[in-house]
């Protein structure tokens, strides 16, 4: 499974499909190809070693303002042609919508980003295996309470994608990433805790075994001895990765599609105060620090910097070509997709603008609170339409500005709208996360926590 | 799906540099989806995924490679990659003799989705939209989805196994949004079976639409959920996810073996009230988690996990059963040919008990009645779980009174299981689900009778 070629042959594949458009027909082809390796270590042995390559194409056809779509998990020519025929057939069952249409070039130049790890393809498999084994060993040797590792893993992927349309779009990009992940098991007095640690980067040399092992060990051991707290109201301190997770949910509510379809609690609120004046957040996939950085969106338009909330005031929504056209604005270069779906709308690199103070400074100012280290049930407990919010939390109590005893089996409840408005401090400790988002420590006072 | 000789050659190639077992998993999946949203047919899409995953097992090591290229060359390359990954030295010429094994289907398929006109599928969506919007003027948005898939799989391994399955699934879902003075609320209902288009002979999409709309409308007037620890009564069919999360995952042998389950080493012990019998059953006709063979070629089975409150067994896949020298249990599943199989649930349910459902509610002075739970999540190491209530009411003075808004329930699996003090005789299966583990999703089913947990933490705001 050799390395990927560096010339955009894939763009030719996409262009050939797009050029099959008949009169009065628009055709878009999104073609993607990737290779990946994953090594899992367990008990000092390689538990599994996976080597894989994938390729596929998604074809969208628009005719008489009707849209149809089909995809195939192969670039086999016969199957690709079948997908085009299926997409054409599917379009005859769509209902006409005057706003349906593919993207057209909008003159915005794509950012010049270097997302390709030149050396990753040449790293011998044996070195990747060694890193996974070393990670397991490092995690086990760090703390006597760590009694096991569920899995220690090295994984990488190299991928390229191309979009071509009969409306003149030609876009191509490639990126690669590697990561180390480990899940540590900690035991004390018959109680077991499990937690994960990560190290993510583009080249293998960006990865740190110590960072992943330390992270897993800290997270698994600090909850040992946790008990269920009493029901109370307190101040929440969210660590950067949890703040980023919550802001990703907010990002979903600021999606032009949800707004148009009456499913966003923030519809009609542009220009209004929707959050604390301390909060500014931006989606900027052209920021090379983000692991979600990309030059082009899923429709082949240039990605760009979109400020969503500035000093608490809602600036606007993310749009793809369809939602931009229908809402009377324009695409913000925010089409998100895989080969198996039509482009949706979403953020690629949503990040909070750093505030002031280190993580420790922020904590020290909290008299009675909870430092949240994990949230559970986000997919079932947050309603993106109503904004109702109820999740399980674990973490460390804060007493007089100091971290105190660990707690578990508690829930917190509020609404997303209230959480945003009530933010009372924003840390300066910006942390970029594996999903491309960036978070900082956030403080939200007076939250209901249910326990015993 | 693949020529007999080619399968044999591929397995031999995989073992050429050594290895104890080689396996090929071939998959050809066709799917169709239609979305009716915002008052119109928004999109019809079709998909085709075809490929093979090959693994070679040597001791505790598995080498795995997958390819979308089912030609002799493509398969040979993947077989060599998988073999090299599990390199053990030795090897040589290995001859594989395959014996075809017939696997009985849990149910037959009457109408293959590919034989149904797209216009007919679209009509169902249009009807559901009209019905949901007709349920009340407060209904402001409706999304209806139709989905079908046909997944044909073939599994062969160097022990001589050769078997196939043809898995058809049909799904219909409706989400309604209701708007009122208190903002927007959503209601969701779904229907899914491992059958073809005959699904709609037995079930009416208007009912699905009405239930989704009713759930959204109900919540417009709902009070905030209470917070704190309360008795919780779970309605029939609405709470199977509780058992899936609270103990199902902890009974998966791969997690047990790694010490990542609170149920490790507890077979033979009492873990629940004698009224609780928990079963995982891949043979259940038409249910969402049913199949003829699992993704390693084992026949689907009905496995009793907890019998009269005593933990009887865990669920196994090929790797764990080889390691422990015991039979597989038909729980080796994978999302697609691109994934390695692992231990997964199928249809997980609690058998009906002795109690009268009305008495269970009447015997609960104050608490919460959950008619329908949403998704959940569990930490298998601690047993702590969380899941959302999508339709719930207050119980006041032994009577179900007002609806309450969404909120999470949180508890500890072993503690909740041990504390259940009432089990109704009114068993029902629940909604089709998608279970995620280590990044892989597989379809699952669940079911429960009415039951009561005397103390569960409700995460509301009131």
Share of helical residues of chain B: 10-25%
Tertiary shape of chain A: globular
The rounded distance between the terminal residues' Cα atoms of chain A is 56 Å
- Flag low-confidence runs of chain B: none
Given the structure, what is the number of helices of chain A?
10
Uncertain residue ranges of chain A: 1-6
* Rounded average pLDDT of chain B: 93
Distance between the terminal alpha carbons of chain B, to the nearest Å? 58 Å
Most residues in contact: chain pair: A-B, 82 and 79 residues
Q: Which percent range describes the beta-strand content of chain B?
A: 35-45%
Using DSSP, what is the number of strands of chain A? 20
Q: Reading side by side through the largest sheet of chain A, how are the strands ordered?
A: 3-2-1-4-5-6
Q: Describe the biggest sheet of chain A?
A: 6 strands, antiparallel
Give the DSSP E fraction of chain A (strand runs of 2 or more residues): 35-45%
Radius of gyration over C-alpha positions of chain B, nearest whole angstrom: 24 Å
Shape of chain B: globular
């Amino acid at each position: 499974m050799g390395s990927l070629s560096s010339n955009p042959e894939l763009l030719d594949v996409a262009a050939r499909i797009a050029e099959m458009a008949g009169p009065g027909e628009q055709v878009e082809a999104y073609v993607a190809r990737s290779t990946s390796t994953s090594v899992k270590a367990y008990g000092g042995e390689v538990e599994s070693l996976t080597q894989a390559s994938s390729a596929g194409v998604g074809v969208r056809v628009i005719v008489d303002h009707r849209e149809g779509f089909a995809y195939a998990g192969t670039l086999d020519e016969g199957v690709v042609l079948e997908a085009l025929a299926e997409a054409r057939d599917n379009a005859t069952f769509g209902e006409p919508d005057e706003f349906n249409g593919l993207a057209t070039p909008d003159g915005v130049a794509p950012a010049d980003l270097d997302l390709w790890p030149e050396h990753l393809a040449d790293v011998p498999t044996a070195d990747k295996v060694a890193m996974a084994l070393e990670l397991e060993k490092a995690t086990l040797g760090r703390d006597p309470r760590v009694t096991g590792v569920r899995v220690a893993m090295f994984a990488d992927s190299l991928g390229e994608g191309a979009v071509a349309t009969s409306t003149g779009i030609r876009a191509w990009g490639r990126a690669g990433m590697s990561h180390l992940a480990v899940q540590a098991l900690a035991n004390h007095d018959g109680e077991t805790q499990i937690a994960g640690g990560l190290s993510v980067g583009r080249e293998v040399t960006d990865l740190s075994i110590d960072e992943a092992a330390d992270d897993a060990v800290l997270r698994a051991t600090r909850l040992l001895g946790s008990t269920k707290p009493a029901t109370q109201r307190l101040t929440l301190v969210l660590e950067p990765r949890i703040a980023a997770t919550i802001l990703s949910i907010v990002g979903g509510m600021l999606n032009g599609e949800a707004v148009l379809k009456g499913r966003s609690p923030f519809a009609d609120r542009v220009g209004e105060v929707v959050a604390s004046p301390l909060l500014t957040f931006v989606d900027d996939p052209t920021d090379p620090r983000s692991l979600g950085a990309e030059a082009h969106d899923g429709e082949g338009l240039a990605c760009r910097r979109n400020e969503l909330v500035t000093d608490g005031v809602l600036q606007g929504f993310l749009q793809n070509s369809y939602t931009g056209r229908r809402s009377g604005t324009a695409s913000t270069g925010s089409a998100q997709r895989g080969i198996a779906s039509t482009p949706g709308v979403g953020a690629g690199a949503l990040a909070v603008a750093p505030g002031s103070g280190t993580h420790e400074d922020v904590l020290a100012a909290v008299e009675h609170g909870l430092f949240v280290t994990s949230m559970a049930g986000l997919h079932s407990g947050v309603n993106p339409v109503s904004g109702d919010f109820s999740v399980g939390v674990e973490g460390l109590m804060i007493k007089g500005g100091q971290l105190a005893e660990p707690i578990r089996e508690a829930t917190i409840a509020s609404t997303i709208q209230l959480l945003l408005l009530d933010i009372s401090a924003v840390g300066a400790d910006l942390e970029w996360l594996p999903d491309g988002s960036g978070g900082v420590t956030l403080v939200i006072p007076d939250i209901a926590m249910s326990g015993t | 799906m693949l020529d007999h000789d080619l399968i044999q050659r591929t397995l031999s190639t995989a073992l050429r540099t050594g290895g104890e077992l080689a396996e090929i998993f071939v998959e050809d999946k066709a799917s169709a989806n239609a979305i009716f949203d915002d008052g119109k047919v928004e999109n019809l899409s079709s998909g085709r995924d075809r490929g093979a995953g090959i693994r070679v097992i040597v001791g505790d090591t598995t080498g795995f490679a997958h390819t979308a290229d089912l030609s002799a060359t493509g398969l040979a390359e993947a077989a060599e990659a998988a073999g090299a990954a599990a390199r053990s030295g030795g090897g040589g010429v290995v001859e594989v003799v395959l014996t075809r094994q017939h696997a009985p289907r849990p149910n037959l398929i009457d109408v293959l989705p590919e034989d149904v006109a797209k216009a007919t599928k679209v009509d169902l969506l249009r009807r559901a939209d009209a019905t949901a919007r007709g349920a009340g003027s407060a209904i402001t948005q409706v999304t209806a989805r139709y989905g079908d898939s046909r997944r044909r799989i073939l599994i062969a391994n160097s022990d001589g196994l050769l078997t196939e399955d043809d898995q058809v699934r049909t799904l219909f879902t409706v989400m309604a949004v209701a708007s009122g003075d208190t903002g927007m609320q959503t209601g969701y209902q779904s229907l899914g079976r491992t059958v073809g288009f005959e699904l709609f002979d037995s079930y009416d999409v208007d009912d699905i639409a009405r239930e989704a709309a009713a759930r959204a409308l109900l919540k417009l007037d709902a009070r905030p959920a209470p917070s704190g620890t309360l008795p919780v009564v779970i309605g029939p069919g609405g709470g199977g996810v509780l058992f899936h999360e609270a103990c199902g995952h902890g009974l998966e042998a791969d997690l047990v073996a790694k010490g990542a389950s609170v149920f490790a080493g507890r077979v033979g012990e009492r873990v629940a009230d004698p009224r609780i019998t928990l079963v995982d059953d891949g043979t259940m006709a038409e249910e969402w988690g049913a199949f003829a063979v699992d993704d390693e070629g084992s026949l689907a089975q009905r496995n009793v996990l907890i019998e009269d409150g005593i933990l009887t067994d865990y669920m196994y896949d090929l790797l764990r059963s080889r390691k422990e020298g015991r039979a597989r249990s038909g729980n080796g599943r994978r999302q697609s040919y691109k994934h390695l199989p692992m231990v997964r649930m199928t249809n997980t349910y609690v058998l009906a008990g002795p109690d009268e459902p009305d008495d269970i509610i009447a015997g609960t002075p104050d608490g919460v009645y959950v008619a329908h739970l949403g998704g959940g999540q569990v930490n298998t190491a601690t047993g702590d779980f969380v899941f959302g209530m999508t339709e719930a009411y207050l119980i006041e003075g032994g009577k179900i009174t007002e609806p309450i808004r969404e909120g999470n329930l949180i508890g500890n699996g072993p503690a909740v299981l041990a504390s259940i003090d009432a089990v109704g005789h009114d068993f029902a299966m629940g909604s089709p689900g998608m279970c995620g583990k280590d990044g892989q999703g597989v379809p699952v089913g669940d079911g429960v009778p009415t039951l009561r947990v005397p103390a569960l933490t409700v995460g509301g705001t009131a």
